Amino acid sequence: MAVIDFHSHILPGMDDGSKSAEMSMKMLEMASEQGVDVMLATSHFYASRHRIEEFLARRQRAADRLAEVKKDYGPAIRLGAEVAFFPGMSRADRLDDLAIEGSRAFLLEMPFDHWSRSDIEEVEYLIHRRGFQVILAHLERYMGMSENKKWIAALLDLPLYVQINAESLLSWRHRGPLLKMFKKGQAHFLGSDCHRSDRREPNLGRGRAVLEKKLGTEYIHKMDERGSRLLQIGGETDV
């Protein structure tokens, strides 16, 4: 059973996250102090900007640079991507290469504009026809978009996972509704969504502390067990 940060921009020079291997090391040190065992390196992937082959090559170079200074220190890193939704993605080639390393889990960022029935059908196809275990990134960031309320409900009816940013649990405004989602089984994992060591820094420990205080230690343990199962096997898991 591992403490997993399900969302980070830890790889140096990949996106708007860490700018150097040295900054990545500082971020890893901060995460280690908070008890994190595994960090998912989920660099942004935009189909409109990136070819998968080029993205994978850049990602590997960034991971190699970090590995040179990291050695065996700190949380283990599992490569993945934060894949921005795009029309037709459910039929796109090589999506498997963007799944989290060693699994069929797939971190999906939905659009920050109006959704449609076809968007939901794309996600459904990813799950039922492509066999991905979809994790919706920071769902709380869309919950204020009233025009998408029914589509959010439709997504939550699908057998998928929801990742919440730890920072959102630190906000009194958002904490109550998010705790209800965790309690009802509509939210499943936490991610720091960390970008740097000086701002938007690793903060998974603070978010976990809120969950543990409000929902109990047993809840935290079950969340860690669920995440560990998801990343260790590629078959069916319980949502």
UniProtKB/TrEMBL annotation:
It comes from Candidatus Anaerobutyricum stercoripullorum. Keywords: Hydrolase, Protein phosphatase. It catalyses: O-phospho-L-tyrosyl-[protein] + H2O = L-tyrosyl-[protein] + phosphate. Belongs to the metallo-dependent hydrolases superfamily. CpsB/CapC family. GO terms for molecular function: manganese ion binding; protein tyrosine phosphatase activity. Its EC number is 3.1.3.48. It comes from the Bacteria. Signal peptide: none annotated. It is an enzyme of class 3 (hydrolase). This is protein-tyrosine-phosphatase. SUPFAM superfamilies: PHP domain-like.
